[in-house]
Design a protein that fits this description.
alpha/beta, 4 helices, 4 strands, about 40% helix, flat
Length: about 120
Amino acid sequence: MSTLKRRLARLEDVLLPKPQLSVCMLREPASDAPAEEWAEYRRQVDEAKARGDFLILLVPMKPTESPRTENGVTYCGTELDALALKASMLPSKLGNKSALGDMMKSLPGTVFGPVAQTKP
């Protein structure tokens, strides 16, 4: 590959718009919910998978469990986890890696790194 072709490929990679990732976030119905509610939930999950959306499902989980991904679906136990994951998938408006990066950079405050403690 010539130098010109390599440079052109890198420029196109940087300048051409990236395809917009579609994210779908759904909450699993309660275990005692009516069958109609479960059927509607399953229909929405099937439609999201058919569209090729990145699927985030809010499901009951133990507080000690972390989000897990199986078969292209990410399961989260809390809405905060799901929203953070969704923000990490959305494009940045300020030039960061993602919308989550935008939000983290906008937070006020100072972060102090770990400091080794000397023994008395």
